[in-house]
Amino acid sequence: MSDTRRRVKVYTLNEDRQWDDRGTGHVSSTYVEELKGMSLLVRAESDGSLLLESKINPNTAYQKQQDTLIVWSEAENYDLALSFQEKAGCDEIWEKICQVQGKDPSVEVTQDLIDESEEERFEEMPETSHLIDLPTCELNKLEEIADLVTSVLSSPIRREKLALALENEGYIKKLLQLFQACENLENTEGLHHLYEIIRGILFLNKATLFEVMFSDECIMDVVGCLEYDPALAQPKRHREFLTKTAKFKEVIPITDSELRQKIHQTYRVQYIQDIILPTPSVFEENFLSTLTSFIFFNKVEIVSMLQEDEKFLSEVFAQLTDEATDDDKRRELVNFFKEFCAFSQTLQPQNRDAFFKTLAKLGILPALEIVMGMDDLQVRSAATDIFSYLVEFSPSMVREFVMQEAQQSDDDILLINVVIEQMICDTDPELGGAVQLMGLLRTLIDPENMLATTNKTEKSEFLNFFYNHCMHVLTAPLLTNTSEDKCEKDNYQTAQLLALILELLTFCVEHHTYHIKNYIMNKDLLRRVLVLMNSKHTFLALCALRFMRRIIGLKDEFYNRYITKGNLFEPVINALLDNGTRYNLLNSAVIELFEFIRVEDIKSLTAHIVENFYKALESIEYVQTFKGLKTKYEQEKDRQNQKLNSVPSILRSNRFRRDAKALEEDEEMWFNEDEEEEGKVVVAPVEKSKPEDDFPDNYEKFMETKKAKESEDKENLPKRTSPGGFKFTFSHSASAANGTNSKSVVAQTPPATSNGSSSKTTNLATSVTATKGSLVGLVDYPDDEEEDEEEETSPRKRPRLGS
Q1: Roughly what angle, to the nearest 10 degrees, separates helices 415-424 and 395-406?
Q2: Residue 649: what pLDDT?
Q3: What is the rounded distance in angstroms from the CA atom of residue 198 to the CA atom of residue 204?
Q4: What's the helix, strand, coil split of the chain in %, to 5?
Q5: 152-176 tens-digit pLDDT
Q6: List of residues 6+ apart from 132 with CB closer than 8 A
Q7: CB within 8 Å of 187: residues ≥ 6 apart
Q8: What PANTHER family does the record point to (predicted)?
Q9: Contact 367/317 with Cβ under 8 angstroms?
């Protein structure tokens, strides 16, 4: 049995009738000898102490509420509740309680608070009879009425009977007349009783009573009764707010009196629920479920009535798009539409569909295009909310509009470009609006929600449109900020914006394979993105790295050639080495990138990394990633040699022949040349690999010769000159090919003592030892054992294949 099923919170009801949290623990039902019966035990999850020990009494009334609550009274003034994390656990304990009391677990109350025989008698009596005798509606009876109303709330059957009695006798109107008398007489005690009575009647949760209480005739008196909460020193002035402060704004005069009345009523009832009534506890939420439904259906009715009045909506749109409309009026019109769309969320799907189609027909999108470009921040914010409702409802409708618009307008005023510009120009330091707009853009460019037709036209047409007309606007801040191979602006707000743009571009890499590939190649976009690896904001450097990781994750040779020719690993490796010995997210993310290349055996990238950067990376030994890349590289080179040797001699031309002496001379000349050129590496072409069992028979001899040669060449390897590390300078062939200046790569290596044991530094997250036996890697790889058997010294450079 999982812990979460039995995980509960224990609550007790305090003197102020508020629920106090006694702690969280795990409940069980077991026989307790001291209590002589089955009991509920709750032990605290923090220290195992006993939070609750309660015998399941055969006559105690237990209530199950909302599938995850069990409530009961231990004594007259000691109420308890268990709130379960999962329904299954609640059902399990409920069955145990019902078993002890001999009840069917399908019931929600094990014992009613009234006698069972009385309950049966009630059910036999006709519904029209007065099942509860209400006291006469007089001032001196208010306390008695208040006690009656509050006493029935715990019994569903008695609540029904009281509601029926109140409805039949027109009792509520009589109570409200008493309220006016009490207020005139300043009878504070009577007003406090009326507060309890009216609040209790609301908790009866009956729609027929709400119809009476929320009518124009009664609602303000109901609000008045609820002002006199006994817990408050001074009564609240809710009626004053509703009549004087709250103003009903008609953006266009509403001529339908029924509609006006419904809007007023909904506002006031919502005010009662949200402001006047205290926030219901978890045990009282179901008491007001009918009140929530009352508001819900009112909103549905309002939307339907407005939608059917086409003259009204046409007038609203006309004023919204009219240039002569002043800013205040336009703000009110936009706020009206925002609330109108919010109300529409209460409609059934088919009705909501008709609602948005009506708005589209009337021209909501062209209107939004105008108001989203306005200077007024409040108007733009409301317009963004309306746009989000439309995108959520139908991305295809929005896409169709912008593609039609593109045939008649300049790129600058296209709706999507207006949205992108709003995202870029968000003045909020936390970019709250930009984040919302970015989410909407992602929905619009997501192929998953594009209509799947036989010819797939929407996807291809819209993506062609987006990359031709909008992508340059989206990437403009990124390209501008990285134009000089360094971050022009590196403040927090700019970094946040660039991170959002990169998130969207990373989404494109995953979902728009063809279009984004062309864009990246043509704009040399990855090089510009990797400039951000130098940002002082680590989250931005990680966004840039994530973009590259997604590209490499596609394992597309077009991308791989682009990366190797442009020498685009250099900024990543620089960032890793500049990060030093700090064990942080950047360090882990970079290592994971190289680990992916090793595990997936991406040969072209492996060769490029080893041939250009291995000297800088070989000192990183706390993971086996780079050693593993070197091993993969050497295995591939061996396969290349074996493949060359397997060609029949009759087919070989003289220029491929080498005797042993000539080969040694060539190697010597190449190594001397390497020393002169400070590590310049020539990348040999990578050919298709063959299975490992195709290795030549004399492979062992070849390895022995190679190891002997390596021991001779150890003097050519870089030596640590000081505890601070050492420097590598590379002149990369890929950079030279692109006509760019070569850059230096500085390796910040952890210092080591002369005897090879680990030396600690203040920021060294993991001790790195040169002693093989004590090396502890952060990641275990299945082929570590094989690699550990190989020579630990760095292998020398491999001779080039061919002449």
Answers
A1: 110
A2: 56
A3: 10
A4: 60, 10, 35
A5: 888 888 888 888 888 877 889 999 9
A6: 148, 152, 158, 161, 162, 165
A7: 139, 181
A8: ATP SYNTHASE GAMMA-RELATED (PTHR23318), SERINE_THREONINE-PROTEIN PHOSPHATASE 4 REGULATORY SUBUNIT 3B (PTHR23318:SF18)
A9: yes
